[in-house]
């Protein structure tokens, strides 16, 4: 017997909330893969803390999505019983950890974005989203600090670390455009003062990222071709493998309580 | 104070054994005084503690692996967060313990290198595999339960830094066993398949958990001096018995049975268990457990893969110092 | 191959406003900024802190335990430094 995927009534607000929740869950999951394997014990602690912050954000957002949707879905059904085509996270966040440089660049790109995003969302006319944003912003502010300190050390460390970090930037750059994309569903929420307009955040994001990258003696790529698709469920091949692991228990033992 | 630098002066006269100092030292121990890093101590006390604390630290770090094996597969988001936080705690505990060992004069790097080279031991229990989600419940319930039995007396150990680290560890660990028991309780109240999963896990972990307390008292090689120095306050068999007596009613509550048909309660109320297979224990300790090779390989890989990161951070710190010196000179 | 040593730091935490910073443990970090971050990630996970100090372990100068007679015993006989040394009749009340 297999478990059917849940169906989700993706009204604009449900979809909007799920997108943010999926971002947090998928990145939190990726960071949790580091647990027990980090370059030093101190960083093992730090990566787990960041992962736990993100898991916490995901759970609050899923619970809110469930409430808005008003059916019998909940945080675990959203996480464990949607397949790859129903996931709405950014492609950047499902990319494999790679080496520590790749993980830190991914973290730095996303945290810098998320911090601006949450700060803007604190002014949302949706009070639940504003409250989640206020809590999450304090977490993401630290994630920016932590990851940017590492970008500087890795970029300006040894020849090897410089090379690895530059490669990570080059390889992940194509995924940043998606952070600033808006579709019709989100446009309406932005106009209603509920959602954040990410386009407005782009100059500040670029300014912060450029200044850290240049302090790190690294460079941003010139290329401006950007991959998209995560927000509408067209993912990279990596997400399916992540989900098959994440969901293995729920898929093997349908309906059980854990 | 964990001042490593003050304790590395090898060759100073402190290391020369001195009967009078040894007598004074023992008198301090007998008076329940705490020994601190810079105090004079017999070389054997230093050696015993360095070995015990570093083994304890290695156990925490290697112990992250069997449970870490389930973080990405935890069956609910609540369980996932709890497990990640718990395994992270083990990392923190390893870190506190390495710091305590460092006050005795060995660096964390030396201690870790010895472990990676297979020259230092860690708890035998972590060489068993976690095959199902029930193993995560069982580890929390039994392995952490056994660890607590061992660790609570260590909070009063004669060596100050070790005792202080253990106080912090015990305080943080208080949620670990409850977390495990809650998983077991949920399984035992769940479907028949879940309950069977719980029973299977208990069957596989019970004997290895009893072995965690170490060899029986009559063959334990370190016990006598450790007791004299108040590093150890209860014998292996005493702690093992205490653990069994505490665990039996918990298993009864869960409706699980022990893989030991000969188990019975004696007139004193203690639960008597059958003979432990010490040959298995010996084999696991000497490297032949089901996961010894995998565990060491995983730790070596993390260490090797992280080398360039540590080098980069060191190089950056060096550059920054140089730049600051140049600026100051200008 | 021997692994190069990463410097050791001592961590002090102020748990509540009004209290002094207290030594809580140690960690390894290559520089002060990373040490401070690591202290936050390791020693304040359960809301233990409002303020953190990190100090390189080798910057601490400690008294020598073998000199504790000379260092600390002379103070023990100066009982006139304590309020209980002085007799004040009960009827005077708390002073």
What does this structure look like?
- Chain B: Pfam families: PaaA_PaaC.
- Chain B: One of its GO terms (molecular function) is phenylacetyl-CoA 1,2-epoxidase activity.
- Chain B: This is Phenylacetate-CoA oxygenase.
- The complex is a heterotrimer of chains A (258), B (330) and C (95).
- Chain A has 258 residues and is mainly α.
- Chain A is 62% helix and 0% strand.
- Chain A has eleven helices and no strands.
- In chain A, helix 1 (12-32) packs antiparallel against helix 2 and helix 2 (41-69) runs antiparallel to helix 6 (127-155).
- Chain A is globular.
- Chain B contains twelve helices and two strands; from the N terminus they run H-H-H-H-H-H-H-H-H-H-E-E-H-H.
- Chain B has a two-stranded antiparallel sheet with strand order 1-2.
- In chain B, a hairpin with a 5-residue loop joins strand 1 (264-265) and strand 2.
- The two termini of chain B are 38 Å apart.
- The model of chain B is unreliable at 1-14 (pLDDT under 50).
- By secondary structure, chain C is of the alpha+beta class.
- Chain C has a domain at 8-63: Roll (Ubiquitin-like (UB roll)).
- Helices cover 22% and strands 21% of the residues of chain C.
- Chain C is built from two helices and three strands, in the order E-E-H-E-H.
- Chain C has helices spanning 32-43, 68-76, and strands spanning 8-14, 22-28, 51-56.
- In chain C, strands 2-1-3 form a three-stranded antiparallel beta sheet, with helices on one face.
- The longest helix of chain C is centred in the middle third of the chain and has 12 residues, at 32-43.
- Classes of the chains: A mainly alpha (258), B mainly alpha (330), C alpha+beta (95).
Order of helices and strands of chain A: HHHHHHHHHHH
Q: Measured on Cα atoms, how large is the radius of gyration of chain C?
A: 21 Å
Instruction: Give the mean pLDDT of chain C.
Output: 91
Spans of at least 5 consecutive residues with low confidence of chain A: none
Largest sheet of chain C: 3 strands, antiparallel
Ends distance of chain C: 67 Å
Categorize the overall geometry of chain C.
elongated
So, CATH architecture of chain A? Up-down Bundle
